[in-house]
Amino acid sequence: MSSAGENTYDVIVLGGGSTGENVADIVVKGGLSAVIVEAELVGGDCSYWACIPSKALLRGPEVLGEARAVRGAKEAVTGQLDVQETLARRSWFTGDGDDAGQVKWVEGAGIALVRGTGRFDGEKTVVVTGTDGTETRLTARHAVAVCTGSSAAIPPIDGLREISPWTPREATSVKEVPGRLVIVGGGVVGCEMATAYAALGSTVTVIEMADRLLPPFEPKAGEAVAASLKDKGVDVRTGVAVTAARREDGEVVITTDSGEVRGDEVLVAVGRRARTTEIGVEAFGLEPGRYLEVDESLQVKGVPWMYAVGDVNGRKLLTHMGKYQARQAGAAIVARARGEEVSLADWSPFVATADHVATPSVVFTDPQVATVGRTAAEAEKAGLGHRVVEYEIGWTAGASLFADGYQGTAIAVVDPDREVLLGVTLIGPAVGEMIHTATVAIVGEVPLSRLWHAVPSFPTMSEIWLRLLETYRG
């Protein structure tokens, strides 16, 4: 192998996904120099294989559903979803796998970029091996931020790995839609892809080991999504375990504890694993293949110059939370480089407090599921006093105008002693655009007495906040 030289920067960022880009951007804006090391596409999974392409696949069916839910508009819908145009729109959003636009942004932000696979070679030192075998040695003055993310987990099921199953990457980048798709896993990815592929024309089967879909969410969320998928012709099987897999005469055969399921392809959507196997963390007493344990400022425990940001620390595997962590970690890196004190107190500009109590997420199924904070079960487990308040969103004027026969539920988990929101779940069409209101209320610990003065515009679905308060007050 030849050497392309040695370079020194204030901060080395391993991984050029959205998290790594944000860490580098923050530290450069803080007056430090930064280099991103990326072996694949700059922009990472979110841009090319996850959030962006999956939502592009889901948006067309969602628009058609909204039009068909309004009399006068539904009569104008005379055709079906155009599958090839839907796939083409998805490809446009991902740049057909070309990251030139992201690279241009990186360069314009004053961030250096080194293409290749990075591996630690001593304290604050990384050796990057390019595709041509050339090695570049990088040294950091202050910090190395590990932002290598996560990859799809393939469980140790007999024969599963051997049949080359789809992961979310294949599901979102497909060129041809399979006639039959078996999805193993009924979490967020499984439910979203079941929604998308049913609309694209596949016959879909979802297999989930838990007794309901979307297990971590409020039970009504999984129940609503399961009912909708069944209405779309999806075979939803909960409480079922996969025991083996094989290919037979061109078919995928999935063996479960309640019989066989056959399809043309199988998507495995059962979780993620940390991308820490090949980066050399064992040299610092860390275990390869495991999530890196961090303190509140995302500093790796026991290795003060190393930060683990985003999926790689296993705290909250969501793009927006990775970006949030990047902002907090970047601020901490800059402050420490200047010799300033970094407070680890709650809601400090250097800590990821929202990871624990105020993480929002949206599941882009039909209906959508939007949630932030704690569920009732999580509040119970944490030993928090709580009261659950529910209201049918369709009873508001805004929802009834949005869609004829609107079906949806709002669930609020309230701390009755402090009278603040602990968590909110919204289930229904277009609820994802309303969840940030609850996020602000939870982060700010806004008393319900003050929320009475946050008057929702009429007639909008935001009227649900007033109805929840009225229900709580009784």
Explain how this protein is built.
Residues 359-465 form the Pyridine nucleotide-disulphide oxidoreductase dimerisation domain. This protein is 31% helix and 25% strand. The protein has 474 residues and is an alpha/beta fold. The protein has 3 domains: 3-48 and 94-151 and 273-354, FAD/NAD(P)-binding domain, CATH 3.50.50; 161-270, FAD/NAD(P)-binding domain (3-Layer(bba) Sandwich), CATH 3.50.50; 367-473, FAD/NAD-linked reductase, C-terminal dimerisation domain (Enolase-like, domain 1, 2-Layer Sandwich). The strands form 5 sheets. Strands 1, 2, 3, 4, 5, 6 and 16 form a 7-stranded mixed sheet that branches. Strand 4 and strand 5 (125-129) form a beta hairpin.
